[in-house]
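Troubleshooting: if your tokenizer reports a length mismatch, compare against these two reference records.
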Amino acid sequence: MKQGKGMSKTAKALALACFALCCAAVLGLAACGSSSASSSASSASASDSASSASSAAASSAAASGTRTFTDSLGRTVEIPANIERVAVSGAISQQVMFTFSPDLLVGLCDEMNDAEKTYVGEQYASLPVFGQIYGGKGDFNKEAVAAADPQLIVDIGEAKKGIEEDLDELQNAIGVPVVHIEASLSTYGDAYRMLGELLDRQERANEIATYVDNAYASTVEVLNAIPAEERVNAAYLLGDAGLNAMAKGTFQAGVIDLVTNNVAEIEGAKGSGLGSEVSFEQVALWNPSLVLFAPESIYSTVGDDPAWQTIDAIQNGNYYEVPAAPYNWISTPPSVNQIMGLQWLSRLCYPDKFSDDIATVTKDYYKNVYGYELGDDECQKLIENASPKN
């Protein structure tokens, strides 16, 4: 089991208490030769001094105390009893913390975009940027993190290969406890509860956990009643040419795989947020009946492209752009935003199976997860390219 540091301050506090008691005892003995009144006064004074010193030591020990926390990897990590300064390991961790406790952050993994400033708060945009441990960049600045003096580094998301060694190495290098909380599309409720325990903010954690659990369970219940042969044949395409596909079975494809028949079966595909590069001929062979385009891909031009008109989804106008404010609803990062994506895509593909609509679940998500009340115009703008074409 891996143990962190943090007991030295407590030891110093106890030593201070012992020293104070010894001083009090010496003062009491020295007063014995005085009159009984003087002796009583000295004894009382010594007693008061000892009591005050002991109380101060106890307070100091409590303030600098530690506790142990067992993370999702089974690592037992010693952490401060009271956590007020947190650093994040990357994009998934940052997004979850933005929905939960942004006031604890001492830095960011990347600069905030305008949508993040709107939904989370512009006041956090001035925090220093540390980079991230994993992902395409892998540019985590240990020196900058250490300079920001966090009490804890939080890593949330998929348990990648070799993660235990990575986090232990980081913890030893910086001298700051590092905790991993596993989170996936089906377990975000558990992740929030664990985070609430870690940061002693159980009330807010339980609020979000209850919402995401209910949203996931109610949507999946409907999906489970739809036979496989009735699932929509879909592809999620990315890149400036629309020729990167989110492969079936990858971590980033969780929403697509759960809601549709993801036609992008690519042998040996990796779970990159950029998807896997494919040819147009491959897309034509898949011939999906529904296509989702990532933000900043070819959604706005594909309808006028003769080549793409040979694809059923494009020819029939059954193609959409994934909303991305403040984060892509499907992936990159594959974080709690996927709960919104799950609800949206299910109602887009099977509207007759649900009693509510895309606008309703969108407003509910932003209210419950970000604490943000979307106005009608804001909501419509958000889902403008993600709603059925009438």
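Reference record two:
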Amino acid sequence: MKKITISVLALLLAVIFTVTPASASNFKDVSSKHTLKIEIDYLVETGVIGGYPDGTFKPNQLIQKKHIAKMMAAALQLPKDQLKHPNYKDVSRSHPYYEDIAALYTAGIFSDAPYFKPDSYISRAFMAKILAEAFDLKSISQNSVTYRDVSQNHAFYRPIQLVAMNNVAKSVRANDGSLYFQPNKMLTRAHFSAFLARAMTLNKGDYLPNPNYDYYYTDNTALLFKEYQNLDFGKATGWNFFNPQTGRYGLVSYGLIGGSWRFSIPQTDASTSIAYPFTIGLNPDYLNKLGMLGIAASSLEKQEIINTNETLTIEGHTFTNVVAIKTTYPKYMENNKGEYYEDKVEFILYLAPDYGPIANYSNGKYEYKISHRIAR
């Protein structure tokens, strides 16, 4: 195998073991270790949720339809004028959530029925239906999922596929590897928040390096296009990563393969994948990789998509719709008493449309920044 430059290895670490925004929520019952905190924080930042007066969010409480109406009306910024009266027998015009419920009815998200049942709960299947319709989710055939508990004749088969294809809802994997959606399971406030935040942040842009350009970085390295690669489950391009200081090349590959954005070093085991399309939250591909390698993730071992629409200025060029992926992994440190303790190391990889990686962020500074690109 050809020798890989220090820069390539650092970039690979930033991706495999990958500016954290300040947490918006300070709910007493949502700790910094909560697996859905990124999504909950996002809804706070965007004004979709505010929690209860006592400073709690009650993440494990089942969510009621009236609260779903309020959250979705805010998320979709639905107008409250010229509302159609839904004629639900249990939702009068004086109901505290009337405008939100009527706004979703006017938008065609809630349908005609004798009763709305504002205090009732909803299932994961019904969640799929309303989010698929509200956000006009499109089919991505290569991301289709075969569920053991959702047959093709299931009443909500299509919307369930749509939320799965677009990484709005994750699968539940059994010990034998089979996948379940759990369509009849009632939703908690935390889980509906997560699904809504992911739908709001869905990003299907092209984040691969454009093969019509060669890319140059501030550390004097370069990414030079070499070849198109035909793969069974997607498309990829091969690139020569060149370090002019050593005069050495290292072959790397970028692609959309099997429903993932992927970076790899061919003919080695060095690779990473990020679930695509991008939505905020934990990256399931990373956890799956740890599982396949037989590695048990510690409390510090995680990879998260923390932003799908960031604006970032690098070397005088402003990039929009930037995707930020933070990876945290444990590192054992020694104190002045010779005792070891577990600390953490964090990397953030930034991807820009039509550019791919444009920078890494770690230890309080940006590294491996894009300088410019030149048309081939």
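Descriptive notes for reference record two:
- Residues 1-23, 290-298 have pLDDT under 50 and may be disordered.
- The longest helix spans residues 189-200.
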